[in-house]
Amino acid sequence: AAKQTGKNKLVTYHPVLSPQPASSVEMETELRKAILENQLILYYQPRLELSTGKIICLEALVRWNHPKLGMIPPNEFIPLAEESGLILPLGEWVLREACLQKVRWLEAGILDYQVAVNVSPCQFQDENFSDKAIHIIEQTGINPAYLEFEITESSIMQNMENTIAVLEKLCKKGISISIDDFGIGYSSLNYLKHFPIHCLKIDRSFVKNIHSNKDDLAITNAIIHLGHALNVQVVAEGVEELSQLEILRETTCTTIQGYLLSPPVSVYEIEQSFHQYDNRPVMIS
Ligand code: C2E
Ligand code: MG
Ligand code: MG
Ligand code: MG
């Protein structure tokens, strides 16, 4: 790929030279090992409440720190984990690690925010999901009020009756539920009135061109007002530019996530950069 620079020169980007990609069978064996050998790592991305300027939540996002290939992003191994069934032990690892990290932060008296954990459709459909989750919560000693599960519309639509039972069980425990990538699933809005949902996360694809595309703006606006009417939090995902933030403020969006505030970062980095913000507003300008 090439990009035009200001002085009309062409800068060429070379693909990163990496070892031959392993076959999916090899990858599966390696991923199985990775889960057991602690090669997975959680990064955290803050969610900011616009009315107060305060961080209210950290989303845990898994990475695979591969001994030879380096840091592998989730989009390159979550699909394989879902196909192979490894998503179940992987998801348990993620939930346990996020709970343990939250307990560590509580004990250290820092980063007093909720922690959001992504739950894939396969994981959510597992009949033991809620029992396993509750077991991990009890084992780690986390107060479930600090925990949010991010699920997608496709998780919800697969087995509606079962979904209601699972969500109510989690909700009774005190766990919050958010709908991730809201607006891109092929689902009816009917579920919103039956299910205990705390938050809608507007998919990044709508937020991306909010400042230049009136359809994206209209959809974002509609989701925000739907959220207000249903009395749930609305998060705009993927906010990268101030111009997007300004529009989101005007459309009365309650919370944002995105590179403008921070990309997902390591525990070390989030402790370094956000500890100082504890209980003080974060200024973005
Ligand atoms: P997601 O849950 O919708 O997470 C948001 C993704 O958007 C993250 O990518 C994040 O780095 C990226 N992002 C955040 N802000 C911006 C922005 O301003 N601009 C752009 N261009 N991107 C932004 P990431 O970490 O690569 O994760 C991708 C997806 O992988 C996640 O989408 C989620 O569906 C899945 N995933 C990540 N961690 C887990 C996990 O622990 N379990 C499961 N089941 N899925 C996970
Ligand atoms: Mg998410
Ligand atoms: Mg999302
Ligand atoms: Mg996603």
Give unreliable regions as ranges. 1-18
The ligands bound in this entry are: ligand C2E, magnesium ion
Strand content: 15-25%
**Which strand order spans the largest sheet, edge to edge or round the barrel?**
3-4-6-7-8-9-10-11
Round the Cα radius of gyration to an integer and report it.
20 Å
**Count of helical segments?**
12
Q: Main sheet? A: 8 strands, mixed, barrel
N-to-C CA distance: 31 Å
SSE string: EEHEEEHHEHHEHHEHEHHEHEH
Kindly state the number of beta strands. Answer: 11
Give the overall pLDDT as a whole number: 90
The helix-and-strand class reads: alpha/beta
Helix content: 40-55%
How would the global form be characterised?
globular
Entry summary:
GO terms for molecular function: cyclic-guanylate-specific phosphodiesterase activity. The chain has 285 residues and is α/β, with parallel strands linked by helices. It is 42% helix and 21% strand.
Provide keyphrases for this structure:
single chain; 285 residues; alpha/beta; 8-stranded mixed β-barrel; 12 helices; 11 strands; disordered N terminus; binds ligand C2E; binds magnesium ion; EAL domain-containing protein; cyclic-guanylate-specific phosphodiesterase activity
